[in-house]
């Protein structure tokens, strides 16, 4: 997937400025597709030049005007074409897994703190996802009826929750294995 497609999806969900778009990438989209502020602004400029997005100046009091981006008809066509193209299932490229295999040729116990650090990061991300699910889809502020966009956002969030739970279970297994392989003192 290209960053352009992630931006088109985000802008279809809600038009916004480059800053607002970058914040969305930090808060939600970024868990599935990451981009720096500079990358986002560079791609927005290119997309504007290609006619994929429209830009309007929004006056602000006491601050410079901001640019608000929205998806143009050509951008919708591009996104539709991409949505109908097949994509290959992703293969996992996981540095930690290679380190774990490599630990057989060194001291496996030396990886315990690194695996624990990854475990904490995945536990934190799972907690963030669960809080978002409660807030946006099941809590008192969640809309009573969800539209197709909300249903699909929830499906992606449920996938993230399932992934983090799977990662935590795997890391628990790795930690148990590393502790079992630790030499007796």
Automatic annotation (TrEMBL):
Start and end residues of each Transcription regulator PadR C-terminal domain: 92-178
Cross-referenced Gene3D superfamilies: 6.10.140.190, Winged helix-like DNA-binding domain superfamily/Winged helix DNA-binding domain
SUPFAM superfamilies linked: Winged helix' DNA-binding domain
Record domain Transcription regulator PadR N-terminal: where: 7-79
InterPro entries according to UniProt: Tscrpt_reg_PadR_C, Tscrpt_reg_PadR_N, WH-like_DNA-bd_sf, WH_DNA-bd_sf
PANTHER family per the UniProt record, alphabetical: TRANSCRIPTIONAL REGULATOR YQJI, TRANSCRIPTIONAL REGULATORY PROTEIN
Name the record gives this protein: PadR family transcriptional regulator
UniProt source species: Streptomyces albireticuli
Lineage: Bacteria, Bacillati, Actinomycetota, Actinomycetes, Kitasatosporales
């Amino acid at each position: 997937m290209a960053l352009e497609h992630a931006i088109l999806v985000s802008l279809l969900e809600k038009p916004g400025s480059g800053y607002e778009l970058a914040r969305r990438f930090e808060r939600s989209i970024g868990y599935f597709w990451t981009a720096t502020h500079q990358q986002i602004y560079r791609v927005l400029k290119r997309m504007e030049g290609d006619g994929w997005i429209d830009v309007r100046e929004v006056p602000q009091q006491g601050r410079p005007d901001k640019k608000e981006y929205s998806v143009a008809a050509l951008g919708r066509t591009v996104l539709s074409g991409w949505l109908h193209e097949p994509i290959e299932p992703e293969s996992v490229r996981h540095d930690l897994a290679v380190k774990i295999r490599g630990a057989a040729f060194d001291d496996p116990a030396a990886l315990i703190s690194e695996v624990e650090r990854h475990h904490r990061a995945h536990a934190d991300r799972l907690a963030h996802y669960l809080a978002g699910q409660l807030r946006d889809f099941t809590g008192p502020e969640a809309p009573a009826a969800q539209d197709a966009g909300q249903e699909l956002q929830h499906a992606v969030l449920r996938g993230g929750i399932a992934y983090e739970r799977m990662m935590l279970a795997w890391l628990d297994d790795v930690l148990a294995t590393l502790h079992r392989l630790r030499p007796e003192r």
